[in-house]
Specification:
By secondary structure, the chain is mainly alpha-helical. It has three helices and two strands.
């Protein structure tokens, strides 16, 4: 993945779509898949092999994301913040963050530093 996904003119279309797919698979989907399991009432997904594997992979990805929250938590000064606990819910916003990155990647820039492009 490139340093900046939004640099559309610095990467090929295939690379941008590959980066978007990877981001969707590891950040956008895990929360949605696990919510789907719980909302559809699939309490023991391990019994069904392919679905159990899917469930386990997404639990692992969400655990990694939560571990990252734990790792970066000391970097933020939340002493005077209201709703300090909302920081721990940030993995739930990952599908929306992916959607915003997708929209940004699909839009072509028409202006940069005063220069207009057609």
């Amino acid at each position: 993945m490139g340093r900046e996904l939004d640099l559309k003119d610095a990467a090929s279309r295939a690379q941008i779509w590959g980066d978007l797919w990877l981001l969707f698979a590891v950040q956008g989907l895990p929360v949605l898949i696990l919510l789907g399991y719980f909302l559809l009432g699939l309490r023991s997904p391990v019994a069904l092999f392919p679905y159990g594997l899917l469930w386990g992979l997404n639990v692992f990805l969400l655990a990694v994301r939560s571990a990252l929250c734990l790792a970066i938590a000391p970097s933020y000064d939340r002493t005077n913040a209201s709703g300090k606990w909302l920081f721990w819910l940030s993995p739930l916003a990952d599908p929306l963050a992916f959607l915003r990155i997708l929209i940004s990647a699909l839009n072509q820039p028409t202006q940069w530093r005063g220069r207009k492009y057609s």
